[in-house]
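B., you asked whether I could sanity-check this one before it goes into the benchmark set. Here's the sequence:
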Amino acid sequence: MLGSVMRLPKIRLPRLVPPMLSGIFFLSLSGAPSPAQAPGAPAPRAAPGQVVEAIAPAATVVSTVHYQAHLGLTCSLRACSGELPRLGARRRLNLTRMSCYLQGTTGAPFFTGFVELRSADDSFVLVQWLPVDHSGSDGFSVYHQLNRAVDVQVGPRQHIEVRLSLGSGTALSASCAAAGTLDTLQ
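And here's what the prediction gave me:
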């Protein structure tokens, strides 16, 4: 026979305002308050123990459609990179998945991959890493495959850069597929 079930008291959580839900929030590990980043302003890299916040401004969404893009990357030496098409005015991309492959010379190990959010003036805003999921060889080349859920909101004056690199050898080709939703803003 099962024992009695202990009932816990109900806890009332504060209600969050909808615009707060669409922002990106970080807690400061240093204990000191960290300043919010103004929309469109370049975000500096965080110093050790400090955090930089990026909070999207409130916006009214008129329509949402599924977004898919194929991106052929340009390779040079050990690395490949490319940018997703820039968004028009009154558009916001909610990037949710990146699926990439990187082909290199035989024996070339995967080193790193990432999706980087950049501002209109091409300064760094944030990065999400893309670890390799599978590597294989056909005897002539090595193939590295990545397929990851990401969570990046790209505003009208921002863009996405993707970079994949090998630890040694030569990168021969690479491409990525991006998926998410594209909002039209009022």
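One thing to flag: The longest strand covers residues 91-105. Otherwise nothing jumped out at me.
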